[in-house]
Amino acid sequence: MLRELIYERLKSILSEQEIQYDFNIEVPDEKFGDYSSNIALIGARYFKKPPIEVARYFSEKLSDDPLFSEINVAGPGFLNFKISKGYYIDILNDMLSKEQNYWKPEKNDIKVQFEYGSANPTGPFTVGHGRQLIIGDILSNVFEFLGYDVTREMYLNDAGRQIKLLARSLWVRYNELFGKSFELPEDGYRGKYLIEFAEKLKEEFEDKFLEKWDNETEQFFMKYAVSNILKMMNSTLSKLDSKFDSVVSEKSVIEKGLVEKVLEIFRNKDLIYKKDGAIWLKVSKLINEDDKVLIRSDGTYTYFLTDIAYHYDKYLRKFDKVYDIFGSDHHGHIPRMKASMKALDIPDDFLDFILHQFVTLKRKGEVVKMSTRSGDFVTLDELIDEVGKDATRYFFAMNDINTHLNFDLELAKSKTVDNPVFYVQYAYARINSVFEKAKEKGIKFKLKEDIEKLEKEKELNIIKLLDELSFTLKDTTEKLSPHILTNYIYGLSEKFHSFYAKERILDEEDIAISNARLNLLYAIKIVYEIVFNLLGITAPDHM
RNA sequence: GUGCCUGUAGCUCAAUCGGAUAGAGCACUGGACUCCGGAUCCAGAGGUUGCGGGUUCAAUUCCCGCCAGGCACACCA
To answer: Domains plus CATH for chain A?
Structure first.
């Protein structure tokens, strides 16, 4: 990786001087060079000299280094590097030898868990869940690619009062089919899926539960509703090509006795008390927030309590790092969860949260209304059916998670250049078609041969960009946002299309240069396959 | 009222943990195939980075104060 090579060289000059500080290597505007560093700007105060002089010092020190074909000092004291052509050829050769492994570091032992898609199993996934699912899925893929031991996990809140409401709502719908009218609970569920479940129930059990509501019936309806909703959720997940390594239910957390355990720890630390018949956690003793109820006066557990127990379990499962991904509407949950972790003597950096902002669907510039209450909201399933898996995934991934996402349905469906998904997939299809054309023309592709013929600015630039994938992946794991990866692949596509338009790849008059460029295309193809795979979108040979 | 996120070209978005003249796409103007996929490419125009201060060699980025939008402030999850 070129960035590292440059970094190491600069670093060693610093240590010769017994000076230490942090500095950057970055890819600047092309006119400045291939890479640049701010080492002299930062270093001015350590060297006690003006930045330009410091920059000259580095530049002289490195003047004999074969890595660079040119080093110059510019602006207020930037150090700009041009990489020797020979290094680019070596790098390309290395990529062609190792293929995907070129970008894949050694496996490490760090156990990372991503929790996302967690929901009450009370209805189908919404569009909002979609963003979360895609963010979690892609980040998991990237961490895994970089050698982490990753667990993708979903938590199901199948024990709370929401499930009771769901059961009662279903029961009401069921009775309606017999012309018996009961009122839906005030916070009940109004989605049409419950009517469909009710119809199935009627077919299977006829009037067995008609006008009969007791504990046994409630249990049955809870189970029936949840299992059917899980079926719906799973079907959506498989349409999305999104898989979990593990699904943990709230019930199982309670059954494992973790709630008791957590309460015991809190009790021993004098962090709980009883008030108004409920059990409270002294959140105010830990952070600057109000105390919260753990056990309601009717004896049932709050979500807060079981979630603490669940996270305690994560700790016991020995994850090194846990990320919870959810919508920004849950951000209020964060400080008290952090506080609870502290109360359980779990290290501060064990748990982190990845919040994403909301999604708005737009059709022809108009906002598509989504409302959970009325039950006519657009489900994730409907979205996938309308725009396809690839567009769904790419669009959810392509914005910074901190910004509100405008999902343009028309754009997502369009098969034109405006649609970024098509743009990047088209580049891939085009590469394949060049290989096919080469065969037709009788130009034989010889792996790793003739690559020293590559010398054009655009060619070497692409090699650099391919090498940069390593940095992009690392950056994605640090910024915890998948849009860095979509931006990368979009940028590579631009570079490729531009190269394709400028330079003829297949030239029967010059077989060697044709083969050299086919090798370059082959490396590009590998990178597309890595990135498409991480994003979870298809790599089409033809479109 | 308090807390979190956002505000960048007409529109949708970038900007590599503070870097050089703030970049792409769409739309607009003008160009490029007898050809490897024109589903593409090249060029032009378009900006007081919401406003006002501060920090420093350097601020879209960090700090403070306003303004606007979104979200949250339950014995819901």
So the answer is: 2-83 (3.30.1360.70), 89-104+416-535 (1.10.730.10), 161-240 (no CATH)
